């Protein structure tokens, strides 16, 4: 068996990935202008390099496919054949297969010889028109033993299209060892025909770069502390100067008093003194006078020392200013190294659209606008999966089938568009399609079936559209590889919120849907507005701030009060109420400052005691326990070493709006017992977090680690509500719920399941047992509390 060099394979995989990404862009140009020659020459050059590298590395299956594709380009370039109408889809199929094969090589997995695809390219190069080969048209070579299909695990959808990943037998990857295959001359065909000059690049590990950025942030924090301490030192020097001036004035007055005493003593002595000289000329000084003169000299020395310190302080200020500039340039440079252009992920997104179109029998094309826009690598990495899901949704749910598009007088090929632009410190991503638009009727029917909307309730279009972000929500009639599971858009919304961004929807029937995502350009440094409520100050990311204003203090007390700004109406809220502190007072002022917040469709005017100002801050993570609390975006370290919480105000406002309206403390309200909620989950973190959420809302909480533990506790007390996980040791949630519904004492206890199992099968089984609510993990606090209040309200009414 041929042995290969592991290092050579890694080099080949890395180089081929870059070449395939570059080729994908050329392929998109070729699709727009099939007659243009430059994309054909570029694709031919890339294929030639990939083919040569594959043969040098000993991966002959990739070399054969690359050779067949290159032959087609040679025939087109020499006008021996034409691409034809279906030539570009055939090329897309070929490049997708190359990408899948390179991915498998990088994973040290077996690759198959795509003989049917090679035959299609050979026939096309001869001028013959052949249909696209099926996805499983692969074979094996006789030189290597085939590997059973079960031994070749499926490549995830995020790595390669499913159309080129199959369960056919594979060619086994040879053992890695010394390179035995001769170096092919094909690799030299690139310093020919005007090859692209490679740009000097240095590759470093991402974790190392993240640490360097973190260190730069720490340097910025220390610099801020030095600036604050130097400012305090400058203030102390000013106090020292004032003290020195008072000392000199006192010494001057002491000298005057001493001289006056000398003259007075001389006059008293009268004739006994020598009149030839006056008292001062005789140096008739007392010890007090000598000490006074000595203090004067010391004061002069102190003034000289103060001048020296002033000079040193100015030098330190100059050095610190220079260091600040260098530190800022260093931080900006490191941040720039973490910024990557959006077009690095464009080939991957195009493959996702092609895959979804192939599996649904639709025709779709992805168009990119502003792909050179840059994002933080961490932001981009976390947005890859959400963007892929949105693109699949656009093809599966949004675009119509070709015959439906013809009836609607649209082109057979649907268009999915991603536009990237920068607005201030934000990067705006717009994902749109020209399909049928959101089916609001289907959304409402599914929402009513799940109990999210009461039948007959009046909802604005924006509120109805936002229901697609509910966990487990889907309007698909049947489950497929690409749709129907109800997992996706809630994850998209969650990731966007975790990044401190916002998500808006715009849809028109038969014209399409557009999702607008606003994301921070970087997660490491951000501009924030500092506000104060009572003795506590917070930072609010400036990306969510629309402006500032003022309102009369009396207006805050009016229920349902609003504030108009820029042709928009903002609902009035108090930051003290939102964070659990006393309300804003703005002592000594007739008006209260307002911070105007905008996030998606939300508009809120938040009252504070004081708006301190804005500054650039370094964002620090706060850990999973604190980050799980709604409204906390992160934290930052101030110049004096104190920590300030960074607030995300929008979730706080939404949570406040979801709570029931407050009523007066009547006698019945005071006598009503505190509801008891039992939380059953094998995760300690989930028990603690959920328990704290409930306790913050004035519920009594008891916890259990599994079903057996819960039954033991149920013998002691019957709760008003049960929050139940499914997968637990000893007794799972289904078994516990079944036993409770069979027990007359526990039958009427409402049960809400909170689980990561959000599939329809699990949900249906829970409802068959008698579970009242079914919530997916991770949940949003306002959503949890809404269900809790509804279940407890219904239970009290039944009692």
Could you characterize the architecture of this molecule?
This protein is of the alpha/beta class and 799 residues long. It folds into 5 domains: 185 residues, Four Helix Bundle (Hemerythrin (Met), subunit A); 133 residues; 159 residues, 2-Layer Sandwich (Heat Shock Protein 90), CATH 3.30.565.10; 134 residues, SH3 type barrels; 129 residues, Response regulator (Rossmann fold). It is 46% helix and 18% strand. It has 23 helices and 24 strands. A 5-stranded mixed sheet has the order 4-6-7-9-8, with helices on one face. A 5-stranded mixed sheet has the order 12-15-16-14-13. A 5-stranded parallel sheet has the order 21-20-22-23-24, sandwiched between helices. It starts with 5 loop residues before the first helix and ends with a helix.
């Amino acid at each position: 068996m041929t042995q290969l060099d592991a290092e050579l394979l890694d080099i080949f995989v890395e180089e081929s990935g870059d070449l395939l990404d570059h080729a994908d862009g050329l392929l998109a140009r070729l699709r727009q202008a099939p007659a243009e020659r430059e994309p054909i020459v570029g694709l031919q050059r890339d294929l030639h390099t990939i083919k040569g590298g594959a043969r040098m590395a000993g991966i002959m299956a990739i070399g054969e496919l690359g050779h067949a594709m290159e032959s087609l380009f040679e025939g087109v370039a020499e006008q021996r054949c034409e691409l034809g109408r279906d030539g570009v889809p055939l090329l897309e199929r070929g490049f997708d297969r190359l990408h899948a094969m390179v991915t498998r090589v990088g994973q040290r997995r077996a690759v198959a010889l795509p003989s049917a695809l090679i035959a299609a390219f050979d026939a096309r190069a001869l001028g013959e028109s052949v249909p696209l080969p099926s996805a499983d048209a692969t074979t094996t070579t006789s030189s290597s033993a085939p590997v059973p299909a079960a031994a070749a695990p499926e490549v995830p959808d995020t790595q390669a299209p499913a159309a080129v990943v199959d369960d056919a037998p594979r060619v086994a990857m040879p053992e890695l060892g010394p390179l035995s295959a001769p170096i092919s001359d094909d690799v030299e065909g690139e310093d020919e025909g005007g090859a692209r000059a490679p740009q000097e690049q240095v590759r470093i590990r991402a974790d190392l770069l993240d640490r360097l950025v973190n260190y730069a942030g720490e340097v910025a924090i220390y610099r801020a502390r030095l600036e604050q301490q130097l400012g305090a030192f400058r203030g102390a020097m000013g106090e020292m100067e004032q003290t020195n001036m008072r000392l000199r004035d006192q010494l001057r007055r002491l000298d005057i008093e001493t001289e006056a005493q000398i003259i007075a003593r001389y006059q008293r002595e009268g004739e006994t003194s020598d009149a030839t000289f006056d008292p001062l000329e005789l140096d008739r000084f007392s010890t007090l006078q000598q000490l006074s003169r000595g203090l004067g000299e010391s004061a002069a020395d102190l003034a000289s020392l103060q001048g020296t310190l002033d000079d040193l302080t100015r030098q330190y200020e100059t050095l610190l200013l220079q260091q600040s500039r260098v530190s800022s340039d260093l931080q900006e440079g490191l941040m720039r190294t973490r910024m990557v252009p959006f077009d690095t992920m464009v080939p991957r997104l195009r493959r996702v659209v092609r895959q979804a179109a192939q599996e649904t029998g639709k025709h779709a094309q992805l168009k990119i606008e502003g792909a050179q826009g840059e994002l933080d690598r961490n932001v981009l990495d976390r947005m890859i999966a959400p963007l892929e899901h949105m693109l699949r949704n656009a093809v599966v749910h949004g675009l119509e089938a070709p015959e439906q598009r013809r009836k609607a007088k649209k082109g057979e090929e649907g268009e999915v568009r991603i536009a990237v632009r920068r607005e201030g410190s934000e990067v705006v991503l717009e994902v749109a399609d020209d399909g049928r638009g959101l089916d609001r009727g289907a959304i409402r029917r599914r929402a009513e079936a799940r109990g999210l909307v009461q039948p007959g309730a009046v909802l604005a279009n924006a509120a109805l559209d936002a229901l697609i972000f509910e966990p487990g929500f889907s309007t698909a009639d049947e489950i497929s590889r690409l749709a129907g599971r109800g997992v996706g858009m809630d994850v998209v919304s969650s990731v966007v919120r975790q990044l401190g961004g916002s998500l808006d929807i715009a849809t028109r029937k038969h014209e399409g849907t557009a999702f607008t995502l606003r994301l921070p350009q970087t997660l490491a440094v951000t501009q924030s507005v500092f506000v104060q409520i009572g003795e506590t100050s917070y930072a609010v990311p400036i990306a969510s701030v629309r402006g500032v204003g003022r309102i009369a203090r009396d207006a805050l007390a009016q229920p349902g009060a609003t504030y108009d700004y820029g042709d928009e109406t903002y609902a009035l809220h108090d930051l003290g109420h939102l964070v659990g502190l006393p309300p804003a007072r703005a002592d000594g002022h007739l008006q209260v400052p307002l911070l105007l917040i905008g996030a998606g469709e939300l508009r809120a005017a938040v009252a504070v005691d004081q708006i301190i100002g804005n500054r650039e801050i370094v964002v620090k993570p706060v850990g999973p326990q604190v980050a799980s609390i709604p409204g906390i975006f992160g934290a930052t370290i101030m110049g004096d070493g104190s920590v300030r919480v960074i607030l995300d105000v929008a979730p706080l406002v939404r949570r406040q709006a979801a709570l029931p309206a407050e009523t007066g403390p009547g006698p019945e309200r005071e006598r009503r017992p505190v509801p008891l909620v039992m939380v059953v989950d094998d995760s300690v973190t989930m028990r603690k977090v959920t328990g704290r959420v409930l306790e913050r809302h004035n519920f009594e909480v008891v916890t259990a680690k599994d079903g057996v533990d819960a039954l033991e506790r149920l013998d002691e007390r019957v709760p008003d509500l049960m929050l139940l996980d499914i997968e637990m040791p000893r007794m799972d949630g289904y078994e516990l719920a079944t036993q409770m519904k069979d027990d007359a004492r526990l039958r009427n206890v409402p049960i809400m399941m909170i689980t990561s199992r959000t599939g329809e099968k699990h949900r249906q089984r829970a409802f068959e047992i008698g579970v009242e609510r079914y919530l997916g993990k991770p949940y949003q606090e306002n959503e949890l509390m809404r269900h809790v209040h509804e279940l407890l309200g219904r239970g009290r009414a039944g009692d």
